[in-house]
Amino acid sequence: LISSATKSLRMETEILEKKLQEAQMKLAEKDGDKEKEIQSLKRLISELEFQLTMEKNNNESFLDKLRKEMKHKSDELEKLTQERTQLIHSLSQVQEEWRCLNCLLQETVRRECEERCGLTAALGRAREQVLQLRRLGGTCP
After folding, report:
1. In the prediction, which pLDDT does 22 show?
2. Residues 6+ apart with CB under 8 A from 133
3. What is the per-residue DSSP string for 29-80?
4. What is the maximal distance between C-alpha atoms in the chain?
5. What DSSP designation does 89 have?
6. Rounded CA gap, 20 and 27, in Å?
7. Taking the model in full, what pTM does it have?
8. What tens digit of pLDDT does each residue of 98-131 get?
9. Cα–Cα distance, 134 to 121 (Å, whole number)
């Protein structure tokens, strides 16, 4: 009975050992698959991190470029604004000079007209005097 029970237990132990070995093999196989999957995921993460780094660098480069362009445009705008202000100032000066010259010309024309009127009146008087002298003197040249 003991021998039979021992035999039965040994057979059961052998079966259990085989099952244990199979389970260990399956576990080792699953561990290998999981390790492969982990390595694959690590590579994928590395690739994605690299792509992310490249995108960040590209974005930073693009932003730097935009900032420089914006600074350049801002400087250009400042320069054009200063030029515009200078031109407006120059235009005001020219307009003031033109107004002064116009007033001077108007005054000159007024004086010239007065002088012409005076000369015309003097010429008329001189003609009248010459006519009177001819009438009085007869043949005076």
Report:
1. 95
2. 140
3. HHHHHHHHHHHHHHHHHHHHHHHHHHHHHHHHHHHHHHHHHHHHHHHHHHHH
4. 195
5. H
6. 10
7. 0.48
8. 999 999 999 999 999 999 999 999 999 999 999 9
9. 20
H helix or E strand, kind and range, residue 120 = helix 2-137
Q: What is the pLDDT of residues 30-58, one digit of tens each?
A: 999 999 999 999 999 999 999 999 999 99
Radius of gyration of the chain (CA): 59
**Residue 78: exposed, middle, or buried by beta-carbon count in 10 A (0-12, 13-18, 19+)?**
exposed
Q: Which residues of 35-45 are buried (b: 16+ CB within 10 A; e: fewer)?
A: eeeeeeeeeee
Asked if 127 and 120 touch (Cβ cutoff 8 Å), the reply is no
Angular region, 140: left φ>0, alpha ψ -120 to 50, beta rest: beta
* Location of structure tokens 């690590």: 42
Task: Find out whether 133 and 140 touch, Cβ atoms under 8 Å.
Answer: yes
Question: What is the dihedral sign for C-alpha 119, 122, 128, 132?
Answer: negative
